[in-house]
Design brief:
388 residues, alpha+beta, 7-stranded antiparallel sheet, 3-stranded antiparallel sheet, 13 helices
Length: 388
């Protein structure tokens, strides 16, 4: 990736330097351990920098090719594969899950459809399922468990972000319509990562990546959305052989996240590899949840004093929307900006109006609401560095 001069891409260099300065200050204050960031515009890189530590305890500095757990940013990798299979005609948004997974009939699950899963309105289990690690790590086993559970709500009734369950079911649908001969790990590698040149990304561990993996540690002690020990435990599970957690168990690098975001900004194509149609991206990056709030953040009212705000979820992406509200995207970005982000550590967004992409990975997890604030402030600095 060639880095173009900031002025050529419409940025004030002095203002843009505030981004790295803010990251360095926060790392120095112990808020987190390290970060890599890449900002692109019109297909070119305007800013790419690496800061702090891969492992602060060992004094190991973060490098550009270090591998970081995606957490829920990886949901967008899974969702894009689902959209790709919709474009093939193997799935469709109004398809009932039970059409592909017959076990999903009965106990209130028969009306759950693909679009409900993509918008987190399916009513499927929102919290981490109370099962053994080997079940969490298996798409087939977790789907079988979920097929025997009652939904938390009727499909379409409310938004309650599904931390692990929704993408497991979507991945199982893809695996079955694909013929069942490939694992989902193989499918996402064959159909997404290799075509896009995302050579340092995989679902679960892979030789050549594990050696560059940054440890998953928390830089907070008081439980917020997640207990810090539980997050660290999930990080350990992701690194077990054969682990498939399509809701966030990917390993990735800053360059690969940038390539993924660039593909989306470019209308679904990158370097001759077309993953999605521009029509699909335009349709899916709209708000399909209206004014409904996201139940996942109910805790933030007491924890941070935040008033409820619209969930603004599209078909597989979070959408910026209108008004001033919390979230990882800048309030100064265009309303059609869309993103994906992961527990206390990761984020990307695409602003189609400004032809702008933002990719961010960090080490040393922050509590979720503080992570949202951190990324929104960095996003503000990027957007307000633009002068044309």
């Amino acid at each position: 990736m060639t880095i173009h001069a900031a002025e050529e891409l419409g940025f004030d260099p002095e203002r843009l330097a505030r981004v790295g300065n803010r990251i360095d200050a926060d790392i120095g204050a112990g808020k987190y351990n390290g970060a890599s960031i890449c900002v692109g515009r019109k297909g070119s890189v305007v800013l790419k920098s690496v800061h702090g530590y891969a492992d602060r305890a060992d004094g190991r500095r973060l490098r550009e090719d270090d591998v970081i757990a995606s957490f829920s940013l990886g949901k967008q990798y899974t969702n894009v594969i689902v959209l790709n299979y919709i474009e093939r005609g193997d799935l469709h948004l109004n398809m009932q899950v039970s059409e592909i997974i017959p076990e999903f009939k009965g106990r209130g699950k028969s009306q759950i459809k693909v679009h409900h899963l993509l918008t987190h309105t399916s009513g499927i289990m929102s919290t981490i399922p109370p099962v053994e690690p080997e079940v969490l790590a298996s798409i087939e086993k977790l789907t079988a468990y979920l097929a025997d559970q009652r939904p938390e709500a009727l499909p379409g009734e409310r938004v309650n972000y599904s931390i692990l369950s929704g993408q497991a079911v979507l991945a199982e649908m893809v695996r079955r319509v694909d013929g069942g001969n490939r694992t989902f790990t193989e499918i996402v590698d064959d159909e997404l990562f290799r075509p896009l040149g995302m050579t340092d990304t995989s679902l679960g561990p892979r030789p050549g990546l594990s050696e560059r993996m940054c440890p998953v540690v928390a830089c907070y002690e008081e439980s917020g959305m997640f207990d810090p020990a539980a997050v660290a435990g999930l990080g350990e599970l992701i690194m077990t052989d054969g682990c498939e957690i399509p809701a966030g168990g990917y390993l990735t690098t800053i360059n690969d996240v940038h390539r993924f975001a660039q593909m989306l900004q470019n209308g679904g194509e990158l370097d001759g590899a077309r993953i999605l149609s521009p029509k699909t991206i335009n349709y899916c990056s709209q708000n399909f949840t209206g004014d409904k709030v996201n139940g996942l953040f109910d805790y933030a009212k007491d924890y941070r004093g935040w008033e409820p705000w619209p969930a603004n979820i599209g078909m597989g992406f979070f959408v910026r929307g209108e008004g001033v509200q919390p979230g990882p995207m800048s309030n100064f970005s265009s309303p059609r900006t869309f993103c994906g982000w992961g527990a206390g550590s990761t984020c990307f967004w695409v602003d189609p109006e400004s032809e702008l992409t933002f990719s961010f990975l960090s080490t040393g997890l922050m509590e979720e609401t503080y992570h949202m604030e951190r990324v929104q402030r960095l996003s503000d600095l990027v957007i307000t560095s633009m002068v044309n």
